[in-house]
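Limitations
The structure tokens in this dataset are predictions for the assembled complex, not deposited experimental models. Users should treat interface geometry with appropriate caution, especially where small molecules or nucleic acid strands are included. An illustrative entry is reproduced here so readers can see what is and is not provided.
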Amino acid sequence: MSAVTTRSGATVPTKRTFSFGRWFHATGWRHLVGLVLIVFSLFPLLYVLSASLNPVGSLTGSNALFSNIGFGAYERLFNDPSQPFGAWFINTMVIAFVTAVLTVFMGALAAYSFSRMRFAGRRFGLMTIVLVQMFPQLLAVVAIFLLMNTISDWFPAIGINTHIGVIMVYLGGALGVNTYLMYGFFNTVPKDIDEAAKIDGASHARIFFTIILRLVAPILAVVGLLSFITTTNEFVVASIVLIDPEKQTLAVGLYKLISNPNYADWGAFSAGAIIAALPVTILFLFLQKYIVGGLTAGAVK
Amino acid sequence: MTVKSRSILAAGAIATTAVLGLVGCSGGSGADDSGDTTKLTVWVDAERVDALKGVAASYKEKTGITVDLVSKANADIKDDFTQQAPTGKGPDIVMGAHDWLGELVSNGIVAPIELADKQDEFLEVAYEAATYEGQQYLLPYGVENIALLRNADLVPNPVATYDQMIAAGTFVVESDGQGLANPYHLYPFQTSFGAPVFGSDDEGYDTSDLQIGSDGGYAFADWLATQGKNGTGVIDTELTGDIAKEQFTSGAAAFWLTGPWNVGAAMEAGINVAVDVIPTPGPEAAQPFAGVKGFLLNEQSKNKVAANDFLVNYLGTVEVQNALFDSGNVLPALTESAEYASSDPIVAGFRAVGAEAVPMPASPAMGAVWEFWGQAEGAILNGDDPTTTWEKLVADIQAALDK
Amino acid sequence: MTPTNTDPEVVVSPRQKKAARLAEAASGGLKIILLKIVLLGIVDAIAVYALFVLVLKDEWLVAAIVAVVTLVVNWIYFSHRAIPAKYLTPGLIFLLIFQVFVIAYTGYIGFTNYGTGHNSDKDQAVQALMSSARERVPDSVTYRVTVVESLEGLGLLVTDPDGEVSVGTATSPLTEVDNAEIDSNVAVSVPGYTSLSFQDVLQRQGEVFDLEVPVSDDPNDGVLRTGDGSSANIYLSSLIYDEQADTMTDAETGVVYSDSGTGAFTSESGEELLPGWRITVGFDNFARAFGEESIRGPLINVTIWTIMFALLSVASTFLLGMFLAIVFNDKRMKGRKFYRIIMILPYAFPAFLSALVWAGMLNERFGFVNEVLFGGADIPWLTDPVLAKISILVVNLWLGFPYMFLVATGALQSISDDVVEAATVDGAKPWQVFRLIKLPLVLVTMAPILISSFAFNFNNFNLIYMLTGGGPRDTSAGINVGATDILISMVYKVAFTGQFRDYGLASAFTIIIFILVAVIAVVSFRKTKMLEDLN
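Predicted assembly:
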């Protein structure tokens, strides 16, 4: 950082020359924090990257990172017919995307009613949806299998071994703490916006779909991203419901590579995990402008 | 009253849509095709699916029965089977290890398999392992045990005793880390002091006869203390499987006590691997545990005749076990196929060690042993008093068994 | 009302307003109503189809529930009341089926003896006992058989190793025949019986598998059974099941095992035959949960650590996440996008993989941290009780701060710049702005996240299990429990040690833990309600 470009790009010579002290005080120290954080965040992941390139295929056996470089693990990942990595990837994206969108939609609907309407059982309801998610899931597999199995008996199209089935189970959590988070954010949108729209004759649905949703875009993006990441990494439900390898998700498929300690292929697993983390990163890039774009200025006219 | 008329209109519209939708749905629901073909569903460890694909295809050719291989994560296969078998939704056949038998039989979810006079065609250890309380439940297909891998470039000739070995080069054996030893890998040393876990009678293991606390057990504990932190430091609780692998494949270690599953990695790393008998620190023979892999029949299966035919008359034949060996490289359980596989010096080496191997106890009582075993061995390695630690181990196991 | 010639902006009559509103509703409303009709139509079509299927399968109760729910949904979306319900229903339906049911069912398991040895119902237990009790007569030969059928039902055409041929059915014992057709030393058919091909056998597998042909009139000679339709052996059963009396009798010792209500056939002396079956056992599991000697000892310490771990994890991740959100929320700073991406990565990777990597890095003698960062020191990161706790917290901070960072970044957006600017103009320092304005506002939005994060960490089984396995072990305790064990991991060890899996006990514990967490959460909510009312 040796020069400061003025935002307007004007040719007017500025009197203030660049001063390191001032720069540091304003933004420089932030870069320092950033650097420390990069080291903290990335360090363990370098291990994963190194393992994915290491032909021996051990995860933490060596501290000599990147001592051997080879792309064998990536080749194994893509060329083994019994591990349809491409199918896992697509399945995961589809399931995670659909789940995230529907979760945001249903959650926002509920958050709107909690935030803008007063009805009996509102407090209790708010508390309950959060409490329900606090249930320790250690044994949930037994009940989930039984439930999905029963659904399968009646409607095979949405039961065991279907993507719709998995998505439905995930949507059970659509009304949860994320709804509460959105509710908190909805509350910060001034009520007089609704009132003004009501006076203009807009119905509650119209206010919600055309005005409110735009104003709360940051939190919708955050919840969408959280839901997407959670779904991508979810393992237990996916492994119970999805049986055919072609239908499985990345988490389940990759886990199979290392579930037997004697035959664990950490190289391929690490390679898969790195590739699996890419969509999340790209999605975050894409959503960032919504998350930090700030409120639509001048909503209150 | 606009509202009313609108509602009626809407209701009409909904009914129409519903009917149309229903027609669409009913068109889509195909009839349940109860075809003439029998289908066997077989759950298989993910890393074994490839080896079985050819076998499944040729069986279909022979009998017309489709074998549907479902790849499952090795860590979940037993629990998933236990949960799903009673619902009638489980697989017909599941791949499993013989030491699951205690639990699966107690749950009543596996049916006996009749090997009848074929039993003599299997390796003795495989047949023993397939039998639980006098009944056979497992069609064995592979036998695994650990042996000593030697880097022949570093140490050209086999060593006779444990002390010679650690003098000749670096020896690694994996532990569980975090202060825990790995009893499975240390078991050959323990048995060389004449201290098996349980005594045995002609029915197999006698779980009421805890041998771990015999004099040999204490001798083993004393020896273990000399190999830990306060002794040679050769056996290290923090040396995990990953690290052991790294040490041997990089050429830092000359000896590695491990199973056939790691030979591939060592060879790929360019190590000149030789397989030796496990050198003993104690007076008796080192008896590693043998793990027998095989197939189990679901008690709730609707296709028991087909499943039996597939297991006994097909998977139990020499051609198939040879083919499985060719694609999977595990020592076959059938004696004739084991001979065939022994042309490979690595397999022959493991088999030679396996001649002394004993099946891992399948009784649920074994759970009580595993619970305390590695912890006690780790504590001794890290400097606790061997006698008192071992005493406590025996007492803890006994208390858990008596529960 | 007479229209006035004044400025129309000043006075708008109510009627005009109403007219305008009607026009408005009509134009935009018609599309919405059409959409609503189509959507509801689809829902109803699916419901009707579902009813159709359920009625065909005789599932009347479920069908009734579906019908009622469908009617309620239709009423909700057509009535002009129940506006909140319009917004809550979609999520609520999923919540009830996939969360509330799962919780209720787990609760129910807590009142049963479900676990190893009691895994299914009584019929299956009887079936399994009988099938394990069938023992091949020692040293008896294997016979080659052909499955045949006569008016009596299925039978076996048997060729013994000497070439003698006999035939029998379930009701008539084996009798020798000499007019059978032999093909490669095996009798394949005999007059009076139809032979079944292998495909025919497969079509009737169940019957064939269960077929027992008595060897002679004396039941003690055993029965002939075939497993694969081509070979048969002689079996005797070591158990005799008396359906009338509902007892099992050991054929050798004569001991009678009866169903005494304990979920297994039990002898006079209390010996049980396994497998048993699932029964409800009332509050037995809860009594055991509170009475289990081995648990009571370490329980206090484990509970304290669980609460500490959850609290410290929430506090540390929140503080770091919040701090970073503010640091990187400065519009003047370049490269914010890049930093943010890097910080999301720990959260984007599968947590258990990260936990394993950390376990390797923290290895006492070979780990990167000791070997490289500390120049070969032997710091027992995971094997010393105190350090292991610290390590757990650091790793959890690494795993959890991106989440908090994301949420805090979102929450910061709800603070309008005007407020901050106004405060700055009034001469507030950045720290004061943060402490007095930003933090309270963000806390209001994030309070539920913090509470649920607490609950999540309270039950963060995976991290503990992957990183330390609960260790280092407390060697003085009678069970496998360690310094970093939290309640849920301790329960897991108690209920699932070795080969005995006790789902009933584990479920009872789960319910107890849930109640504990719920109480803490409800109390916290009451506290945050005050925060909310400030808003």
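Some entries come with short summary sentences. For this one: Chain B touches chain A through 34 residues (CB under 8 Å).
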